[in-house]
Amino acid sequence: MTETKSAADHNKAPPSEDGSKPGADISFPYDRMTVEQFRRRFPRARWSDARKAWFVPGRTASRRIGQWLAEIEAEADAHADAKGRDAFAFDPIDSPYLELGKADFRIRTPYSKTVVDELHEVPSSRWDGDLRIWHVPFRSYEELRRRWPDIEAAACRNEPEERRRRVEERKGTEQDMRSKLRAAERKRHRYPFQSDDLPPIGRPVVTAYGIVVFTEISGELVDPDDVADFYPRVTEDHVWGYWRVPTLEELVRTWPAKTLPVENAEWWLPTIEELRPARRTATSREARKYAKTP
User: Which residue ranges does the record annotate as region Disordered (predicted)?
Assistant: First the structure.
């Protein structure tokens, strides 16, 4: 006998093959130990060659199967957590940013977009807004270990003392002046476009500033001499568009583009790879906004 479907694939079945009993079907990849566990739990179950599934008789069969599957999944998670904790004991991460909790790893770092992006990629990680820490289950240790060098390096770069040191080093330099000018330009919330290639109004698009929503194309011509440092490819044919940050609802409603942008495009429709981090950022931004609301 061979079962091929997922262990979670069970359904209320029609009456059993003789047409007399209610029950439910369940099928799962064949594994001798799993079959033995299943037979001990459901001694009245019978294999159906016609449906390629086990038939469990009884009006509560579906509920009992669901409970058994939940227990099997919990056992698998517990086993994986034990393996992850053993892996940590054998080859630990020694870092002031990581703490070993009773049930998981706890990670606390200065804010860094790189840290957030990396931890989002670790399976089953979650942010605890009350404690302001990340929880990572023991079973995700291998992936956490693989990403830790980038996480720790980004956390170190964003320590307050390190950030102040970099600011002091840049003060008065040409780099500092250019950085301030770029920040001032960004605060104007404007962007140059060729007059024959304008973005849609009110729809999230991607520019050098990330995903934004344009609210107006003014028709005002851009003076290349004034903004060449910020927009090197700008010409006298460019006009100004004015943008704002998209809302979470707009980002969720946006259907991802299936094709990549053309080379040197000034704007393009976002792909799913660009929408995912933007949605996470918007979620965090709205959570902070609501937290400040009395």
Answer: 1-28, 158-182
Beta strands per DSSP E along 121-165? 126-128, 133-137
Element (H, E) at 39: helix 32-41
For the entire predicted model, the pTM comes to 0.49
The yes-or-no verdict on residue 1 having pLDDT over 50 is: no
Do the Cβ atoms of 214 and 201 come closer than 8 Å? Answer: yes
62, containing H or E segment:
helix 61-90
Q: Which of the 8 DSSP states describes residue 123? A: T
Per DSSP, helices labelled H in 188-271 are: 224-227, 248-253
92-148: per-residue pLDDT in tens? Answer: 999 999 999 888 999 999 999 899 999 999 988 888 877 889 999 998 999 999 999
Place of tokens 């990396």: 118
| Helices (runs of H) and strands (runs of E) counted in the chain | 9, 12
The sign one gets for the Cα dihedral 234, 238, 241, 246 is: negative
